[in-house]
């Protein structure tokens, strides 16, 4: 996902609550959402349709690359040529092996992207040959994902009550016990996932029609993918629309004895959208979104400061690219 759009006005309270409900339970029906939120079904349906029609939110799905054997991912800190930041970011975002892209402040032309490693030989060539097909990009550092603690698909806006969240989670498909580390996708699995990636809220009847199977079979296929945790449903929305326009990527140096403790604690924090253990000197990455810069300060002092084992950290502000592609002048690296 490329952070280059203008979020515009913040969504109102009810819209935020509807979005948050669908972030927790992406396929929840409008009647269920209305009942849990205490709103009329027609009002929820009308607002939800507007959110989808305007592009304020998208209903999609994403594979767990490690679990379904697609390979590990590597998070790359990149330097684009001066004046080419927007075009390079768009080129990266359009690649099928790139999962997300973010422009960051702190130095001119710096980007982060998460790249799917389809072969381990690619990892060894990144530092010398760069990203295949994009020789103009300088790879400044690379961090292989070792253990995801929280993905974007698992984050939701913290605007609902505990009871509302509990009721929404009650209808979710639960993972099977004793899951294998990897699951081999079948051609049908891939077809089901492709439809859900386009629209995770598609009805089972429509899904069955696209696949040429019965509604019941379509439902079993979706449930199987979710039970095995190879596919995650996601309601994608710009955090700025939810009143959280300040985003930052934090690189943490954590003592090995504390990685699990710190990663789990950050994954449970409502300000943290993404958290993963990675290779490198900074062995934990976390993306944070808050209401304002003072909220980021509070996060550092109150949240990070209260956790043991953190030895050092640094922060990059995730920024939006101007529509004309110009690059704000930061301090050159």
Description:
- The chain has 333 residues and is of the alpha+beta class.
- Helix content is 34%, strand content 24%.
- It has eleven helices and ten strands.
- A hairpin with a 5-residue loop joins strand 8 and strand 9 (284-290).
- Helix 2 (30-37) packs across helix 3 (41-53).
- It is globular.
- 34% of the residues are buried.
What are its keywords?
333 residues; alpha+beta; eight-stranded antiparallel beta sheet; two-stranded antiparallel ribbon; 11 helices; 10 strands; 34% helix; globular; disordered N terminus
Compose a concise summary of this entry.
The protein has 333 residues and is of the alpha+beta class.
């Amino acid at each position: 996902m490329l952070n280059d759009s203008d979020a515009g006005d913040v969504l109102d309270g009810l819209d935020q609550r509807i979005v948050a409900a669908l972030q927790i339970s992406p396929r929840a029906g409008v009647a269920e959402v209305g009942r849990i939120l205490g709103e009329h079904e027609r009002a929820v349906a009308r607002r939800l349709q507007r959110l989808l029609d305007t592009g304020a939110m998208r209903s999609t799905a994403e594979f767990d690359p490690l679990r379904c054997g697609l390979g590990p991912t590597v998070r790359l800190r990149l330097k684009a040529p001066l004046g080419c930041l927007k075009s390079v970011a768009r080129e990266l975002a359009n690649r099928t092996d790139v999962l997300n892209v973010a422009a960051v402040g702190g130095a001119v032309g710096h980007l982060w992207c998460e790249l799917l490693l389809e072969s381990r030989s690619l990892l060894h060539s990144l530092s010398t040959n760069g990203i295949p097909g994009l020789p103009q990009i300088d790879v400044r550092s690379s961090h292989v994902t070792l253990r995801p603690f929280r993905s974007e698909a698992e984050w939701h806006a913290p605007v609902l009550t505990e009871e509302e969240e509990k009721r929404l989670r009650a209808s979710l498909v639960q993972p099977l016990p004793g899951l294998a580390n990897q699951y081999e996708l079948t051609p049908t699995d891939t077809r089901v996932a492709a439809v859900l990636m386009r629209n995770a809220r598609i009805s089972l009847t429509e899904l069955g029609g696209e696949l040429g199977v019965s509604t019941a079979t379509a439902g079993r296929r979706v449930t199987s993918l979710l039970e095995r945790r190879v596919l995650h449903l996601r309601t994608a929305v710009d955090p700025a629309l939810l009143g959280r326009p300040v985003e930052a990527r934090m690189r943490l140096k954590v003592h090995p004895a504390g990685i699990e403790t710190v990663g789990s604690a950050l994954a449970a924090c409502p300000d943290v959208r993404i958290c993963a253990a990675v290779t490198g000197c900074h062995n934990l990455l976390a993306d944070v979104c808050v209401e304002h810069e003072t909220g980021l300060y509070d996060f550092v002092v109150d949240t990070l400061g209260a956790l043991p084992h953190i030895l050092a950290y640094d922060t990059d502000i995730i920024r939006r690219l101007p529509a004309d592609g110009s690059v704000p002048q930061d301090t050159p690296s």
